[in-house]
Every structure is written in C-alpha cells, then in structure tokens.
Amino acid sequence: MPAKETVSFTKNFLDKIVIPKGSTRPCYHDSNTVGLSLRVTSNSVKSFFVQKRINKRTTKVTLGRYPEMTIQQARVKAIKTLNLISEGINPNKLAEEEAIRKITLGQVFNDYVRSRGTNLKDNTKKGYVSAFNNYPKDWADKPITEITRDMVERKHRKITKQSPTRANTVMRQLRAYFNYAMGEYEDGAGNPIFIHNPVSRLSHIKA
C-alpha cells in the first residue's frame, strides 16, 4: 500500500491498513471530506488530523485516534476545525487556552509554591501547605474561574468562627494565589486569562 493515498475512509479500510516499520508514518486522505487525513505509526496508532496554512504557516491539528474516534466523528470535527482555520483561528491555541481556563485552585497553589523556589523558607512553605490543606482544600479540584466572591466571603465567615486571625491569614494567601494566576496564565494574544480576584471584596484584608 502506498505511503500516501486518497480513498474514502471506511471501517474496513482503516482496520486493514498495514502497520509500518521504523520511523515511517504513512498518511491517508479521505476523499469524502477534503482536508481530513489519517497518520499511522509503527506503534499501531492511527490518528485523524487536518492540516492547513494559517498566516503563511502550516498548522496541523490532531483530531483524535481511531477507533476511539469514529470516521463520522472525525469528519464532523474536521469540517469544524477547518472552518476555524479559514477564519484565521488556530485550534491548537484555542485548546491550550481552554485547558488554562480549566486550571484548578490546587494547580495554581502548586505552581505558586514552586515558583517561589528557594525564596520560600521551609517553615513558610509548611505554613502555606498546612493552611491550604485545612481550609480551601475542598476547592482544590475546582477551576478557579468557578470560585466566586460569594464563595470566598462564605468561606471567610466560616473560618472566622474558628479564628478571625486564621481567617484573615487564609484569605491573604488565597488572594496571593489568585494574583499569581492573573499574572501567570495568558491567552495566545498575551492577555491574562483571569482578570478578577474574588478575594478583592474582602477589602479589609491586605495581601
């Protein structure tokens, strides 16, 4: 079978593609959906993809693997993806930005602590970890875009009942995590993904 071939994708055809040896990665192109292709590796991985030029640069977008993604699903996604590219939108960057928008508070906390490196003393680091594990830990898996000012205010009131000093300390730390996220994570145009700090309502707490 030739390394490149245009053919109508069918389950029978894709199932019978001969797996290449070594570094060879043959590609096959769907005659029913212009722009949809399939790449095959020596590890038996068959990946649907589209490829088109954006701003004079060739962009390849992987759609999914066969057979987890069906031929019909690949055709539908290929058309949508090619339409985006035609509008000058890079789907790869969109996917990256979407992943960033879903970043959780736990991820932000880990990135924040890691970014401080040796500037963060061991005792200070232990204090951050202890406070996080004891108070906002229930938000660890929640995307920070879903943490609202009302949620922060309720959390502050709840901790205040135990210890006003501890509540203020936790909120100062939480504000620092959000400020870090606002400065750290950007979209493809260099604009911040997060523009609001939900802890800012607690104006009497100084970060």
Overview of the molecule:
The model has no long low-confidence stretch (mean pLDDT 88). The chain has helices at 11-15, 71-86, 91-101, 105-116, 122-134, 149-162, 164-184; strands at residues 4-7, 27-30, 36-40, 46-54, 57-66. By secondary structure, the protein is of the alpha+beta class. Helix 1 (11-15) links the parallel strand 1 and strand 2. It folds into two domains: 4-89, Double Stranded RNA Binding Domain, CATH 3.30.160; 101-201, DNA polymerase, domain 1 (Orthogonal Bundle). Helix 6 packs antiparallel against helix 7.
The biggest sheet amounts to:
5 strands, mixed
Cα distance spanning the termini: 65 Å
Figure out the total of helices.
7
The level-1 CATH class of the largest domain: Mainly Alpha
Helix/strand structural class:
alpha+beta
Which percent range describes the beta-strand content? Answer: 15-25%
The assigned CATH architecture of the largest domain is: Orthogonal Bundle
Q: What count of domains describes the coordinates?
A: 2
Mean pLDDT across every amino acid position: 88
**Spatial ordering of strands, largest sheet:** 1-2-3-4-5
According to CATH, the homologous superfamily of the largest domain is Tyrosine recombinase, N-terminal domain
Shape: elongated
Keywords:
207 residues; alpha+beta; Double Stranded RNA Binding Domain; DNA polymerase, domain 1; five-stranded mixed β-sheet; 7 helices
Please give the structural blueprint.
Elements: E1 4-7, H1 11-15, E2 27-30, E3 36-40, E4 46-54, E5 57-66, H2 71-86, H3 91-101, H4 105-116, H5 122-134, H6 149-162, H7 164-184
Parallel strand pairs: 1-2
Antiparallel strand pairs: 2-3, 3-4, 4-5
Helix pairs in contact: 4-7, 6-7
